[in-house]
Design a protein that fits this description.
Length: about 350
C-alpha cells in the first residue's frame, strides 16, 4: 500500500492497517492519531512531527525510522523494533514500551519491582548511582514510571533515559508459568490422542516441532494447535475429501488476498494456510462427532459414539494449546533470548507429550 492510499482510507475513517508494508514511507507531519499499524513494516520511514498519539504500533518494525518530534503520547509500542530509530524530541507520555527494542539495540525493561520496594524502605542501602543525592539530574535518578510523562527533548536527554529504561536482568526475570502450564496440558492431551491412535514416530515429531512454529515468525504462533491436530489426524487417517476441501478453500483465499486485495505473497500464503488448516481440523472433527454414511439409505446422521471421546479430547487439546501457544512472548518481554525461550517451550511440550503417552498406558 502506498502512502496516498493509506491517507485516503484514513481520511475515510479506516484505522486498521495492520501488517501493511510502508518501508521508507514519508509521513512527516501527518495526523494519524489512533491508527493501527501493528506488525507493520515501517523501516526507514520518515515520521518526523507526525501525530501518532494512541496509535497501535505493537511489534511494528521501525528500525532506522525517523520519529524526531513525533507525538507518540499513549501509543502502544509493545515489542516494536526501534533499533537505530531517531527519537530526538519525541513525546512518549503514557507510551507502552514493554519488550521494545530500543535505538541502542537493547530491550526496554523497567527495573524489577522488588528493587524499587527495597530502595523505598531502605534508602540508605541504595548504591551511589541510584541514590538521589548522587547527582543533580532528577531525570536520570528518578525511578521510571510508565504512567508519568516522558518527553524526549534532545539526543542528550533521550539516549540516557532510554538506556536507563532498557536495563534488563534476564537472570532475575521470572518465567510466566500460567501459559506454560496450558502448553503442558495441551500437549499432554495431544500426546494422549497420538497414543490412542497408535501414531508413528513421525507424527510425534511433527506434534513436538509445532511448538516451535513461532521461531519462523511471531504470527506463526497460531499454527501450533493446527499442526499438532493435523499430526493426530494423520495418525488416525485423513479423508481425501476433507483434504481437497481445505486445499480448495486455501487456494481460493490465497488468490483473493494476493490478486484482488494486493496483499504481500508471504502474508497471503500464511493467512490462507491458517484458514485452510482450520477448515481441515473442523471438518475432520465433525467426522469424529457424527456418522452419516447411512444418511442416503434412511439411517440419517447420528452421533458417532465410537469416536466421540476423541472429538472431546481434540477440542480440549486445541483450546489448551491455544492458551499456551504465546508462552514465549512474556519470556521474550522479560529479557530471555529467543533460544532460551525456545528451549523452555520445547521441553514443556515434550514433557506434555510424554505425560500423555504415559496416561494412555493406564
Amino acid at each position: 500500500m502506498d502512502v496516498n492510499e493509506l491517507l485516503r482510507q484514513y481520511a475515510e475513517g479506516k484505522r486498521d492497517f495492520g501488517f501493511v508494508d510502508l518501508q521508507g514511507a514519508r509521513l512527516s507531519g501527518r495526523y494519524l492519531a489512533g491508527i493501527a499499524l501493528y506488525q507493520a513494516n515501517l523501516r526507514g520511514a520518515i515520521l518526523t512531527q507526525a501525530d501518532l498519539s494512541s496509535a497501535n504500533l505493537r511489534q511494528a518494525d521501525l528500525q532506522g525510522a525517523n520519529l524526531s518530534q513525533a507525538n507518540l503520547r499513549g501509543a502502544n509500542l509493545r515489542r516494536a523494533n526501534l533499533k537505530a530509530a531517531v527519537l530526538e524530541g519525541a513525546i512518549l507520555e503514557g507510551a507502552i514500551l514493554t519488550g521494545a527494542r530500543l535505538p541502542d539495540g537493547s530491550l526496554y525493561q523497567l527495573r524489577p519491582p522488588e528493587e524499587e520496594f527495597f530502595e523505598e524502605i531502605c534508602p540508605e542501602e541504595a548504591t551511589p548511582e541510584e541514590s538521589p543525592s548522587s547527582s543533580n539530574d532528577p531525570q536520570i535518578n528518578q525511578a521510571p514510571n510508565p504512567d508519568s510523562p516522558t518527553v524526549l527533548s534532545g539526543s542528550d536527554a533521550a539516549m540516557p533515559l532510554l538506556n536507563r529504561l532498557s536495563a534488563i536482568r534476564p537472570g532475575q526475570a521470572p518465567v510466566v508459568w500460567a501459559p506454560l502450564l496450558f502448553e503442558w496440558l495441551g500437549f499432554g492431551t495431544f500426546g494422549l490422542l497420538l497414543a490412542l491412535n497408535q501414531a508413528s514416530g513421525f507424527n510425534w515429531l511433527i506434534a513436538w516441532l509445532s511448538s516451535l512454529c513461532w521461531l519462523g515468525g511471531d504470527a506463526l504462533t497460531w499454527f501450533i494447535p493446527i499442526i499438532a491436530a493435523i499430526a493426530v489426524f494423520n495418525a488416525a487417517g485423513i479423508s481425501v475429501v476433507t483434504l481437497a476441501t481445505a486445499g480448495l478453500i486455501a487456494l481460493t483465499l490465497l488468490l483473493t488476498l494476493r490478486v484482488m486485495l494486493g496483499w504481500s505473497a508471504w502474508k497471503a500464503l500464511r493467512d490462507s494456510l491458517w484458514v485452510g488448516g482450520m477448515v481441515f481440523v473442523l471438518v475432520q472433527l465433525v467426522g469424529w462427532l457424527f456418522y452419516g454414511a447411512d444418511a442416503y439409505s434412511g439411517g440419517g446422521i447420528v452421533v458417532a459414539f465410537s469416536t466421540l471421546h476423541l472429538a472431546g479430547l481434540l477440542v480440549l487439546a486445541v483450546g489448551l494449546t491455544s492458551l499456551g501457544a504465546p508462552a514465549w512472548e512474556p519470556m521474550i518481554a522479560q529479557g530471555f533470548s529467543r533460544q532460551r525461550a525456545a528451549a523452555i517451550v520445547s521441553l514443556v511440550s515434550a514433557a506434555g507429550l510424554l505425560c500423555g503417552k504415559v496416561i494412555s498406558l493406564f
